[in-house]
Design goal:
The complex is a heterodimer of chains A (210) and B (229). With 210 residues, chain A is mainly α. Chain A is built from eleven helices and no strands. Chain A has helices at 2-12, 19-28, 33-52, 54-71, 83-96, 98-111, 121-124, 128-143, 146-156, 162-169, 173-193. Chain B is an alpha+beta fold and 229 residues long. Chain B is 25% helix and 18% strand. Chain B has five helices and seven strands. In chain B, the strands form two sheets. Chain B has a four-stranded antiparallel β-sheet with strand order 1-2-3-5, with helices on one face. In chain B, strand 1 and strand 2 (96-100) form a beta hairpin. The chains are: A mainly alpha (210), B alpha+beta (229). Chains A and B meet through helix 3, helix 4, helix 8, helix 9 and helix 11 of A and helix 1 and helix 2 of B.
């Protein structure tokens, strides 16, 4: 009975609870962890698809949430936002599948160098240069080290700030900056080599701080 | 445009149009639920499906199927009710609703990616030949092996473009058996629309009329093979 009351009480906590509050509540009522899934599954799935394609993405996202669930006792409840934690788990899993990720980027590079499919011309006619650019970028991502790629893509596609990336990957902030700098330099060079430069100097680049 | 903006562009191009599947949600929530709260679907879903197949003429039966998503958050209840005679009825399922009006028109609303067996059964029971499918990015049928629809198979032929626009427009579609010729049928397609970083998912339904029901595909994929979007 006491357990039922506790569950009912927990259920009345609204969706406005912080991630940390949800994680803390899930230690008593495991079902509460589902709220975290509903908040972030689409976001993580999108990120995983971007990095490894749709086929592998669902498994990675499932494993991420299952690992997060089993590790939730160790979550730092002072961190209200669980996104960096979840992205960190996912990014490490993706890194362990470096080959899958590279195959994904190579396929993109090839696809966007291929001729336009008949019948879709009107939808892609204005995107020829954009496609070429994407192909070059995908090839450049292949050339990055796993560590540099992780940092770059958590900023670019995960929309994490530098501080959040440092939290996600458990790295010093300075290391995040240096890896990002190196990765961006590599990508810029690839674009320039392909005649697709136009990159702004590093000093003009934005830093996400939110 | 700096390299980060260009990477943003690549990220948008690679972002999936569909949300993670209900199976994924089920998989995660089942694994994280206390043992006593885990669904025992395997023990009773199969007999229910078998019953549904045998009594397909009983329109409300699909409404009695449990939510295949097995979620605790969704509160859709089985509420199918047979109307008077065959003229009008409504089928409610956790993943869709289907209403057949007295004038023969059928209105379908996708609440999520559908239980395709249940949706096809409801469609056929409403007097519409054809099948319901969810968009499947792994589908390699159709022209070029990209899971695309062959426009020449449609009725009227080559109506793909306008129908595709319709697909992305709404989660509710209305159709009737007169939309296709004798021997034909409808493909009822359900997909998802998600934006970058979106936390909610919009479900979209579309209808494609086929002159020959045998040419209705068994899987579909609306991702543009050129852009990946």
């Amino acid at each position: 009975m006491g357990d039922a009351i506790e569950r009912a009480t927990a259920a009345t906590i609204t969706a406005s609870s912080s991630d940390a509050e949800v994680i803390e509540a899930s230690l008593r009522v495991p079902e509460r962890f589902g709220e975290l899934y509903d908040r972030y599954a689409a976001m993580l799935y999108g990120y995983a698809c971007q990095r490894v394609g749709t086929t592998a993405a669902e498994d990675l996202v499932a494993d991420t949430f299952l690992d997060a669930f089993s590790q939730r006792q160790r979550y730092d409840l002072a961190r209200a936002d669980a996104r960096p934690w979840l992205y960190g788990i996912l990014a490490n899993k993706i890194s362990r599948r470096g080959r899958t990720e590279k195959i994904h980027y190579r396929a993109i590079a090839r696809a966007w160098q291929a001729p336009t499919v008949e019948g879709l011309a009107e939808r892609v006619a204005d995107q020829v240069s954009a496609q070429a650019q994407r192909g070059v970028l995908a090839a450049a991502l292949c050339r990055l080290s796993k560590a540099d790629r992780n940092v770059l893509l958590l900023v670019a596609w995960g929309q994490l700030s530098y501080v959040e990336v440092a939290q996600a990957l458990d790295l010093p902030l300075g290391t995040v900056r240096s890896r990002l700098h190196r990765a961006r330099r590599t990508v810029r060079a690839a674009l320039a080599e392909a005649g697709l430069a136009g990159a702004a100097p590093e000093s003009q680049a934005r830093e996400r701080t939110s | 445009m700096d390299e980060m903006t260009k990477l943003d562009d690549l990220g948008v191009a690679l972002h999936p149009r569909r949300a993670p599947s209900e199976k994924l949600r089920d998989r995660v929530l089942t694994a994280t639920a206390p043992r006593s709260a885990r669904p025992v679907r395997s023990r009773w879903l199969v007999p229910s499906l078998a019953t549904a197949a045998v009594t397909a003429v009983a329109i409300g039966v699909v409404a009695l199927l449990p939510d295949s998503g097995g979620t605790t958050a969704r509160t859709d209840q089985a509420g199918g009710r047979a109307g008077q005679g065959a003229a009008t009825f409504e089928v409610r399922h956790a993943s869709f609703t289907l209403v057949r009006s007295a004038d023969g028109s059928v209105t379908f609303t996708a609440l999520q990616l559908v239980d395709t067996d249940a949706a096809t059964q409801a469609l056929n029971a409403a007097g519409i030949a054809g099948r319901a499918l969810n968009e499947d990015p792994a589908c390699t049928a159709g022209p070029g092996g990209h899971g695309q629809i062959e426009p020449a198979d449609l009725y009227p032929p080559d109506t793909l473009h306008s129908k595709l626009t319709g697909l992305a427009a709404d989660d509710t579609v209305t159709f009737r058996s007169s939309d296709y010729p004798e021997g034909g049928g409808l493909l009822l397609a359900v997909g998802t629309e998600t934006g970058k970083g979106a936390t909610t998912t919009k479900y979209a339904a579309g209808v494609f009329a086929y002159a020959d029901a045998n040419k209705i595909p068994t899987c579909i994929n609306f991702t543009d093979p050129g852009t990946g979007q």
